[in-house]
Design a protein that fits this description.
The protein is about 50% helix and about 10% strand. The protein has about 160 residues and is an alpha/beta fold. The chain folds into two domains: about 5-85, 3-Layer(aba) Sandwich (Rossmann fold); about 95-160. Strands 2-1-3-4 form a four-stranded parallel sheet, with helices on one face. Helix 2 (about 40-50) crosses helix 3 and helix 4 (about 95-110) runs antiparallel to helix 7. The mean pLDDT is about 95.
Length: about 160
C-alpha cells in the first residue's frame, strides 16, 4: 500500500494526528513530517520531498495543506493522492499579514504563550466536548516547538 505523509498545521507536531495515526498505521506506513526548519513554503516543500518516499499519498492540515499544495506543484508525479484539510490556496490576506508583525515581535520578546493563547488558539477549533483538550494540546505543541519555529512559520505564511 502507498505510504501516507501527513503535514501538521502551524506550531503543531505529530501529536496533532495522534488518533488518525492509531487507525491509519494499521493498514499502511504513515509518517508525520515536520514543517519547522525553513521560512518559505517552497523550502518546506523541498524538505518534505527530500524525506518522502518516491511515491506517496499526502495530507495536510492548515499550514500543512499550504505546504502540501507546494509539494504537488514541485513534484506532481510523486503524489498518488492528496487530502487538504482546513487550508487555503491563496496568498495571505493583507489583514492577516498586518497581524503577524506584532505577533512575531511579541514572540521574539518572550511572549509565545500569550500569542498562542490570545491570538491563535481561539481560532483552532469550534466548541465541542474535546475543545479544551485540543486547545491544551495545541499550546503544548507550540511551547515545545518554540519561538524560532513560530517566526520561521509566520514568515513562510506571510510570503507565500
Amino acid at each position: 500500500m502507498i505510504p501516507l505523509i501527513l503535514l501538521p498545521g502551524m506550531m503543531c507536531d505529530a501529536r496533532l494526528f495522534g488518533p488518525q495515526l492509531d487507525v491509519l498505521s494499521a493498514t499502511r506506513a504513515v509518517h508525520v513530517l515536520p514543517i519547522t526548519q525553513h521560512d518559505s513554503v517552497e523550502a518546506l516543500a523541498s524538505q518534505v520531498l527530500a524525506a518522502a518516499p518516491e511515491r506517496f499519498a499526502l495530507g495536510g492540515l492548515s499550514m500543512g495543506g499550504i505546504v502540501a499544495m507546494e509539494v504537488v506543484r514541485q513534484a506532481p508525479d510523486r503524489v498518488a493522492g492528496l487530502a487538504l484539510m482546513d487550508t487555503n490556496p491563496l496568498a495571505e490576506a493583507q489583514a492577516v499579514k498586518d497581524m503577524r508583525g506584532p505577533q512575531i515581535q511579541a514572540v521574539q520578546n518572550g511572549k509565545l504563550q500569550r500569542v498562542m493563547q490570545d491570538d491563535l488558539k481561539p481560532n483552532y477549533t469550534n466548541d465541542g466536548p474535546n475543545r479544551r483538550a485540543i486547545l491544551d494540546l495545541c499550546l503544548d505543541m507550540a511551547m515545545d516547538l518554540g519561538a524560532d519555529v513560530f517566526v520561521r512559520q509566520s514568515h513562510a505564511l506571510m510570503t507565500r
